[in-house]
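Dear colleague,

Following up on Tuesday's group meeting, I ran the structure prediction for the two-component complex that the binding team flagged. I've pasted the input sequences exactly as they went in, so you can double-check that nothing got truncated or mislabelled along the way. The structure tokens for the whole assembly follow below. Feel free to forward this to whoever is handling the docking comparison.

Inputs:
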Amino acid sequence: MNKLKGTIKHIQSAENISIVDVEIDNQNFRAIVLETPETSSYLKEGNQVFILFKETEVSIGKIIKGEISLSNRIKCRIKKIKKGKILTELKLLFNNTYITSIITTASAERLNLKEGEKVEAFIKANEVSIMEIVDG
Amino acid sequence: MIEIDIEKKLFSHTGEMNLKIKTSAKKGDFVTVFGESGAGKTTFLRILAGLEKPDEGYIKVDNQVWFDSTAKINLPPQKRKIGFVFQDYALFPNMTVEENILFAMEKKDKKFLENLLELIDLKALKNRKPQTLSGGQKQRVALARAIARKPEILLLDEPLSALDIKTRHILQEEIANIHKQFKLTTFLVSHDYSEIFKLSNKVIYIKNGKILKEGSPEEVFLENRISGKVKFTGEVLSIKKEDIVYVLTVAVGNNIIRVIATEEEIKNIKIGDKLLIAVKAFNPIIFKINS
């Protein structure tokens, strides 16, 4: 699980659904959740929260041109590749923050991914959860 | 209705502790008393049973006073309508199953005995001596013996913790059944989350002798601070490495589910651990089941 700490910059709600923008290490992450500031007190602009997303929900792109509906596009550098028979784990760095992606080894080979290379990580907003930070 | 407001100074190897419990239970409640060892759970049960005397306070059961420090009332255990089951079965080794149960009865009621043997599935074992029984069977006898007193309150102090998972599940069903059938109010000491969620409608979470949290199992245990809308609690049955990831097999209620985890995630997870599994409301695929 990727778990990153950030600050809520903006919330847009309609009925029970909210789009929440969280800034992490100068990078915006967008989450869509079935919660609103009314139902969850931690959804407040300026609040610190964790965002959570599964490694297997992080797609990788290389030299992607054109538009895509997906909200979260993060420019990263591949720091480490761990190749398995079916799956490959990538440690990615943006600014000073690491995220992990797990893709198929077939895709990793098709993209010819190498350590040190620049790629883009894609995460759909509906795959991103938000977690309240509780002290102690 | 049971109303409890008691205080007792306890001395243990970790030092002095003040047990201070104020709570209540309605008739028919199944209350789990939860907390670390040494939190005062067993003492609390023993106080309810009359085996230990609080320093101060009162215990009222349906407006009958069982204990009142100011009025100097303290009903002895045999005057309190309670049944008690401990972790160690505490059966009389020289008596048969039937004799063990009969011994506990105030009036020897053969018909009720037959009912009990039937209900708790002990008929075939009634002439056996305890040492010839398995752990699960012994605990069934202990349960039958506790019920033989026709209690209103059943006190269970980790009755299933020494049993294997399968036997534990069977006995959980039997306990739920007995609780309902005899319209009991039950207090259970347990650490097993699936047991707690299955059996109890109320949890008292005790820490250092004080109530830390009180409410339904969901209110006490399920953290509401993750935006995932689909949440389960389960117990880890196995952890297997597959390729570069791990597959966790988790018992969630009566279902077995499998989830993928990374090496990092399983670092602090071992078999038997309790997990909260959350999925975003956007992700599950739904199918209507046609009957």
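Helices of chain A lie at 105-110.

Cheers,
M.
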